[in-house]
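Reopening: structure tokens for the coenzyme A complex, inputs below.
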Amino acid sequence: MQPEPRATSEANPTRTVLAPTHGRRATWLGSSVARCAVDNSTVNLIWSSTVDARLREQLASIWVAATNAGGALGFLPPVTSQDIAELADKTFDRVADGLDDLLVAFLAEEPIGWLVLERDARSYAGHWRTLKRLQVHPAHQGNGYATALMEEARRFARDELGLEFLVLTVRDGTGVAGMYERLGYREVGRVPSVMRVAENDDRDEIYMVQSLADSSDVARSRRR
Ligand SMILES: CC(C)(COP(=O)(O)OP(=O)(O)OC[C@H]1O[C@@H](n2cnc3c(N)ncnc32)[C@H](O)[C@@H]1OP(=O)(O)O)[C@@H](O)C(=O)NCCC(=O)NCCS
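Re-run output (same inputs, fresh job):
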């Protein structure tokens, strides 16, 4: 039987960070490459602070498709691009305003997945971000691209933004919490029954956190 294609992420030796990661930035902040181990297709993971009309439309259409395939991205299916437009505009405006960081996975120039690292508005909460909107187009799911996006987000958050931890929330019962656990997140709490996804079907919102200190940092700080 043909093995499922998987993507492995690797540091791109030519990766460059062109601009400081605070405030107004250049269009292109850096990138890394994820390579599908079976067919060797290459997915470029690119941080962008420019979200032009075309990219907005492409990312929003992934949002619609992933939601309508059962994804938990702030809406219940079925949705249209009109349904998500207000939240999509807010999401991309924050990126364009330099508040949040957007990571897009491109397969042959076509965006196939993305996520956002959202900044907390409080001045004393600059040492962490919320990872939001992780999504891969249904036609490309199961190839390891979400894993590659998450690994690049972790690297960028730690090495470029200097963050100490990442937070995310998950709708219980979707199975995605298990994926996040395998990626190093742990559950730190949940708000019971805040999502009524259907009659008699209330779901908890699970809060998960990943520390960005690697084990050698932890060992070093323990020795002090
Ligand atoms: C969740 C999602 C991003 C995963 O994308 P993907 O590219 O298919 O994920 P990967 O191929 O990297 O798979 C990573 C692992 O998670 C598992 N996984 C992926 N989606 C899963 C799901 N919905 N439920 C349970 N496990 C899942 C995979 O089996 C894989 O496990 P393995 O490493 O043990 O083989 C994608 O299914 C999606 O876009 N869903 C809709 C949006 C959504 O719900 N996002 C999460 C918001 S909290």
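The chain has two domains: 7-160, 164-224. The chain is about 30% helix and 35% strand. Marking as resolved unless the reporter disagrees.
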